[in-house]
Amino acid sequence: MSGQKRHVGITDTTLRDGHQSLLATRMKTEDMLPIAEQMDEMGFHSLEVWGGATFDSCMRFLNESPWERLKVLRKAFKKTKLQMLLRGQNLVGYKHYADDVVEAFVAKAAEHGIDIFRIFDALNDVRNMQKAIEEVKKNGKHVQATISYTLGPIYDLEYYLKMGKELRDLGADSICIKDMAGILTPYAAYDLVKSLKQELDLPIQMHTHYTSGMGAMMYLKAIEAGADVIDTANSALALGTSQPATETMVAVLNDGPYETGLDLEKVSTLAEYFKEVRKNYQEFDVYKSGVDVNVLRYQIPGGMLSNFITQLSQANALDKLEEVLKEVPRVREDMGFPPLVTPSSQIVGAQAVLNVLAGERYKMVTNEVKNYMRGLYGQAPGKVNEEIRKKIIGDEQPITVRPADLIEPQIETAKKEIGDLAKNLEELLMYILFPQVAKPFLEGTLTAEKPAPKKDEPKEEKKPQGVEAINTNLSSGVGSVARFATNRRNTRMGSISFNFNGKIEKLKILVDGNGYQMDMGKFDEEIEEKEVKAQVPVPEAKEAKKETAKVETASGESTVTAPMPGKIFKIIKNEGAKVKQGEIVMILEAMKMENEIIAPVDGTISKINVNVGDAINPGDVLFSIN
Ligand code: CO
């Protein structure tokens, strides 16, 4: 190669997406600090160390203050730029917050050390990114505006170029192409980057997950088309559902007409450290070797598939997996082809499962889907199926304004609620974002998990109390044998084997107070808190029961049974209440979504058989009506 080599920057994601994708976001600050100085010397373009799910996980699982983590990391990284992932108006939570919260959050993150803010919206609705972009600029930091990459009839080059221009006009300093599912093929990446570069004249950074095995090739083609920066993780925490490995890309690029500013020998020394660290988190490790073919086949994120398996297994309906996988694209189409990323992936996935389990599409609809149809998550990227929308919200008109325009300022109200417990704005923000976790955290009463045993300490015998073997014999050809073990307070780990088109696949699943850990994205903190307090039901060995909310009329009394496993989230009508047919009696929380259980007939509630927080199985009687 002659002439000057073109510089390609490398962002190391090990301390954020790397452990979020492979170790359920459990890496502690104390495991980051010893290597910080060494990482700081490497010459990375930046380090992604904060945001995404880490804010929540820090408090919830590690009893650490996420602000404290940022402060100490900033102190430790003296040279390298630090970056975070920000979910637009959702910040690091799962719903829209008021503008005053966005303003305060961005200011504090900037003050404590974030240089580059990567901002995205689950619907690619730039109105949901606008406020965050403004605030980052106001604080003099770098705005990396993000295009979430997905597939579907509406997603052509024109779509992405239009979005790219909108982001540029809002003041983006660079553009990130976020391939959260690992479905961007190398050639598509080439065309996409080429057009964006021609049109926008902005630096482009690529983000992918290695789930489908295409990531490193995709990066190379994107770089050939002009991409400026790529996201990689240290080889010890790379591949699988994480990013392509840093060392691989450094070796490939430095050998070609590019230079990364990184030295392969030097950068290789980091893996020794992270290999050891990874051992501390074995119980959370979701690594599966090889390529997840289903991502290539169905273009759905790997985590989603494992969620379906867990959900269906709990409903004793694992034989419906294929049906659910076929239902996902149909639901997505009805909803106007949202990208599948937090939280839209959870919303679409849960509704697909409901549509299959209920035996009728949209017979049961989660509150999240209702709100989606009301426009409360933003504008759907494509056309929503109006017939389905009508079935779900009737004659109600969806909103057309930016959703956050309808949210009253939240800071002053929260201040009154929490009083002196929040000593500063940082703590108040923790409370606003995750009230149920932040309150006990600030009180010092949060029971965080005990530290994972270090490698040189004698390991506790992993043999848990109460090993349960589950053996569901489904005659349909899809078999499942799962062993679950309660290995810590409220946490069960296990593996599940299933026969998928003749191929036996084995997945590790972790069910804990937060739901199913194969899914890195979490959804609604309010619902999750309920789960923390109650045991997650483990599927029992019994014949597959496929019941939907059922009315049995005997001597004038109707009983309503649970259509699926879940937890009682709210009881709206009490015993003795008069109800009309179709009125909501209670809300069942299942698959992290809220499902309304309605009165099947007019009458009086004669008996409520459940309490808030109860874990229930399909077929359990919920209430009776006279
Ligand atoms: Co990612």
Explain how this protein is built.
The protein is 36% helix and 20% strand. Among the domains are: 6-284, Aldolase class I (TIM Barrel, Alpha-Beta Barrel), CATH 3.20.20.70; 466-543; 550-625, RNA polymerase II/Efflux pump adaptor protein, barrel-sandwich hybrid domain (OB fold (Dihydrolipoamide Acetyltransferase, E2P), Beta Barrel), CATH 2.40.50.100. Helix 5 (99-111) crosses helix 6 (127-138), helix 8 (186-200) runs parallel beside helix 9 and helix 19 (425-433) packs across helix 20 (435-443). Residues 17, 180, 207, 209 line the site of cobalt (II) ion (CO). The site of cobalt (II) ion has 4 residues, from loops.
Instruction: Bin the strand percentage.
Output: 15-25%
Please give the CATH class of the domain at 6-284: Alpha Beta
Strand count, sense and barrel status of the largest sheet are: 8 strands, parallel, barrel
Radius of gyration equals: 24 Å
Could you tell me how far the N terminus lies from the C terminus, measured between alpha carbons in angstroms? 84 Å
CATH architecture of the domain at 6-284: Alpha-Beta Barrel
Task: Return residue spans where pLDDT drops below 50 for at least 5 consecutive residues.
Answer: 449-548
- Report strand order across the widest sheet: 2-3-4-5-6-7-8-9
| Approximate helicity band | 25-40%
Going by CATH, what is the homologous superfamily of the domain at 6-284?
Aldolase class I
Overall form: globular
Mean model confidence by pLDDT: 83
Total count of strands: 24
Small molecules held by this entry = cobalt (II) ion
The CATH topology of the domain at 6-284:
TIM Barrel
Total helices: the number is 21
Give the class from helix and strand content and strand pairing.
alpha/beta
